[in-house]
Amino acid sequence: TKRVFSAFKPTGHLTLGNLLGAILPAVRLQDEADCVYAVADLHALTIKHDPERLRARTREAATLLLASGLDRSLVYIQSQVPAHTELAYLLESTAYFGEMRRMIQFKEKSANQEEVRLSLLTYPALMAADILLHRVDLVPVGEDQRQHVELTRDLALRFNRLYGETFTVPEAAHPPIAARVMDLTAPTSKMGKSDGSAAGTIYLLDPAADIRRKVMRAVTDSEDEVRYDPQEKPGVSNLLTLLAVCSGQPVESLAYEGYGALKRDTAEAVVETLRPIQERHTELSADPAELSRLLADGAAQAVERTAGLVAAARVAIGLP
Ligand code: TYM
């Protein structure tokens, strides 16, 4: 069986982009693969953060992953498995400053900022460690993580060449549609937890009324012609994408006379997709001790599963 890993960074509340681009594809992989998913709280330390809020959002993200259907996978919190940081250092010692500096996300997030944390630069080495630790074949991610997974492959190949066959070289798996969900008010930008606008971002825990309002106010264009064309009609195409994925119909089958009806149906499809997730989130939140136990158990299993790989990497690179 194939092995799968992916992670989610709790820099904000999880969004519909996270759900459609990565979480639901990850849920589907559970039927055919051995799946491990983590909340990447260490990755959230790469930008300005508030400790209490981070702790709360880490738990919220873990709860939402389980509530979305990842309850047949191993789920844990990254920082509770020290192997991530240990392997990250070995990969920082494999990676070059030049290739880190050229990462698109680093360039975007560090632009026009005085206080760029060093961990923002080394972020992809930690992400590579997350993936390589689990010797996975597939990494289900949205389009924006493509370059980081490419770098992970490069580092794995380089390490294997320099120090002997140690890592499995993984591949990114992007969903056929919704690999890049756009901001509803700025449909040429990605819908994001921290960078997107609140009005243009649907959060998984948004009440139905907020979801409807955000979709009804989504930016479209002045044509009133419903057609899937991401270049010419990014707003309408984004709505069609949301409707297609949330209603389980192919985009080609969606025909509408005007934007009003398209928006109404899209809003209802999103509300219906999120409803069971929100209900399950409420149930799981009612028993915090059970969640803590589950996550501690997940971390313990992850420690056990990754010990061999870390030992092999240590020996290969020349540590005692
Ligand atoms: P993060 O936390 O920004 O996003 C989590 C996942 O959601 C996807 N995603 C989207 N997909 C479609 N449309 C969007 N608007 C959208 N926004 C986010 C992301 O592509 C991602 O798959 N560095 C990673 C977290 C990470 C990770 C890893 C991922 C840490 N270690 C190891 C995979 C493997 C990140 O910041 O994703």
UniProtKB/TrEMBL annotation:
Listed EC numbers: 6.1.1.2
Enzyme superclass (EC): ligase
Pfam families for the chain: tRNA-synt_1b
A molecular-function term among this protein's GO annotations: ATP binding
Entry-linked Gene3D superfamilies: HUPs, Tyrosyl-Transfer RNA Synthetase
GO cellular component: cytosol
GO biological process: tryptophanyl-tRNA aminoacylation
Keywords: Aminoacyl-tRNA synthetase, ATP-binding, Ligase, Nucleotide-binding, Protein biosynthesis
Family: Belongs to the class-I aminoacyl-tRNA synthetase family.
PANTHER family assigned to the protein according to its UniProt record, in alphabetical order: TRYPTOPHAN--TRNA LIGASE, MITOCHONDRIAL
This protein's name: Tryptophan--tRNA ligase
